Amino acid sequence: MATSSRWTYGGYSYNFVDSDPPDEYLCHICTLVARDPQQVTCCYNIYCKSCLDTLKEKGQGFICPTCRSSLEGKYFKDGRVERGIKSLKVYCTNTDSGCRWMGTIKDIDTHLNSCIYQLVHCTNECGVKIKRSKLETHLTDKCPKRLVNCRYCKQEGTYQVITSISHLKECPDLPYQCSNEGCHEKIPRHSLGSHNETCPKAIIPCEYNTVGCNKKMKREEQEKHNEESMKQHLDIAMKKIDAMQHSSNQQVFKLHGYKDKKEEDKKWYSPGFYTSPGGYKMSLRVDPNGNGKGKGTHVSCFMCLEAGEYDDTLEWPFQGEVTIELLNQLEDKNHKKENVSFDESTPGQGKERVNEGRNTVGMGHQKFIPHEAWEFEYNPFTNCQYLKDDSLYFRVSVKATSKTKPWLALT
């Protein structure tokens, strides 16, 4: 049995079954059994056609390597030799891998097209070469480009995409362990907010936190706390009501239908209110889709003066400070707060008396809060949520100042 592997092109490099092939079948350039054998007319030797083509392309003179004669137009395909070569018996090139096939050179290509030991390229073009017998398993179980469905959200994609960190960061159904101590539920990412609103283990403030009860407890303990603290809650609620009756410079407004207003780029105005009895009349303007430098990226807020019943008796231009708060709807902290100052440096248009209707420009903040703020819709780590049930709540506090009529700026 003869083996020849010095060349990776040119003639046939097979393991022959019977014996070394006859010398008359060998190419005198690559020394392998000639592929597409050509006989030269000068010395009648045999060459592979590809070997002669390569020799000619070198541009160093197309000369016979054996007798040094010119080969231009002096060779032809030798059909008799080709028949003899094609009938030589060889082993499969995958013998070392376990194939036991033997046959003629004429039939080996047909065999290799079905040989289970032959290395083939993955048909998904993942770059892997694999034995044909293992291709199906590779395509089904191992190929990084095989199509799979995410085990959580069922989105279809290639294995390497569906299992990537980028997909897992976005997968809406990826399960998260509830962060509340004692709760062992695993919640899909998109349901974390709603779960936290009902989780019995969630730490929540007392229902009466807005009137002064600072107790925090697990949601499952809330009913018991309310029963035990009924008198305390009643007392602090009455004190809060009494305080509110004596103070009119703080207002709370609800903006409903936030998403439609944002998409339609609409402005929203609160009902008008007075800064104090006999005081200035104002309203809050909110641009859900932003204004100016905050356009398309932030919620913008502005305070607008309106024509009021007591304007004739007030000092103009208006001076004072307004605090705008976007309220956290889960507990009485982490409110988003910004101040708007009306003083000598404030442009005149924003603080001058309005004779009719309202000043629609107002003074405020174009970048009050970004749309993408983590707390905007829900932050489970800080228990903060500004947007809930498509609504925002704003609290406005006004402290007016007056040099000549200070009694009119007070409650």
How would you characterize the overall build of this protein?
By secondary structure, the chain is an alpha+beta fold. The protein has four domains: 90 residues, 2-Layer Sandwich (Herpes Virus-1), CATH 3.30.40; 56 residues, Zinc/RING finger domain, C3HC4 (zinc finger) (Herpes Virus-1), CATH 3.30.40; 70 residues, no CATH class; 162 residues, Apoptosis, Tumor Necrosis Factor Receptor Associated Protein 2, Chain A (Sandwich). Helix content is 20%, strand content 25%. Pfam families: TRAF-mep_MATH, zf-TRAF. This is RING-type E3 ubiquitin transferase. Its main location: cytoplasm. Keywords: Cytoplasm, Metal-binding, Repeat, Zinc, Zinc-finger. It comes from Amphimedon queenslandica.
Summarize the structure.
With 411 residues, this protein is an alpha+beta fold. Helices cover 20% and strands 25% of the residues.
List the keywords:
411 residues; alpha+beta; Herpes Virus-1; 4 domains; 4-stranded antiparallel sheet; 20% helix
Task: Note the topology.
Elements: E1 37-40, E2 46-48, H1 49-57, E3 75-77, H2 79-86, E4 89-91, E5 102-104, H3 105-112, E6 119-121, E7 129-131, H4 132-142, E8 147-149, E9 156-158, H5 159-162, H6 165-170, E10 175-177, E11 186-188, H7 192-196, E12 203-205, E13 216-218, H8 222-228, H9 230-245, E14 250-256, H10 258-263, E15 268-269, E16 273-274, E17 281-287, E18 298-306, E19 319-326, E20 336-342, E21 363-370, H11 374-377, E22 391-401
Antiparallel strand pairs: 1-2, 1-3, 4-5, 6-7, 8-9, 10-11, 12-13, 14-22, 15-17, 16-17, 17-18, 18-21, 19-20, 19-22
